[in-house]
Amino acid sequence: MDTITQIEQQLQIDSFYPSGAYIWETGKAVYEFPFIQKVNDKKFVVHSQRHHALNPFQLAEKTEWSFDNLRDAYKKLHNLENGIF
Question: How far apart are CA 70 and CA 67, in angstroms?
Answer without folding.
Answer: 7
